[in-house]
Amino acid sequence: YDTTVVESFGALLEGAMFGTPTRKEGSGLLGAVIDTGDVKTFVKMTGPTDAIENQAEAFERFLDSAQRP
Questions:
Q1: 41: Cβ contacts below 8 Å, ≥ 6 apart
Q2: 62, containing H or E segment
Q3: Residue 18: phi, psi to the nearest 5?
Q4: pLDDT tens digit sequence for 9-57
Q5: Which sign, positive or negative, has the C-alpha torsion 44, 65, 61, 51?
Q6: Collapsing DSSP states into helix, strand and coil, what is residue 50?
Q7: Measured between alpha carbons, how far is 16 from 56 in angstroms, rounded to an integer?
Q8: Which among 58, 50, 43 has a CA at the least distance from the CA of 4?
Q9: 41 with 22: CB under 8 angstroms?
Q10: For the chain, does the N or the C end have fewer beta carbons within 10 angstroms?
């Protein structure tokens, strides 16, 4: 399947849609859109930068497992 992957590291703004966001420095995001043609599936992983970096290979394995056999 066509898969678009994005990664971002820096500050993350957390909070309710209409509330005041809380800025969390040292955060990261790995995300992907898996396009099967009929359906697009969105997945993301957020957390402290070191946790995201430590789990990046597991995220890639997950994406590989979602590919057409």
A1: 33, 34, 66
A2: helix 49-65
A3: -105, 10
A4: 999 888 888 889 999 899 999 999 999 888 899 999 999 999 999 999 9
A5: positive
A6: helix
A7: 27
A8: 43
A9: no
A10: C
The pLDDT, as a whole number, for residue 69 is: 55
Query: Measured on CA atoms in the order 26, 13, 45, 42, is the torsion positive or negative?
Result: negative
- Beta strand pairing status for 40-48 and 22-35? antiparallel
Give the closest residue to 55 by CA, choosing from 45, 41, 63.
45
CB-CB contact of 1 with 67 (8 Å)? yes
Residue with tokens 């005041």: 20
User: Amino acid letter at 16?
Assistant: A
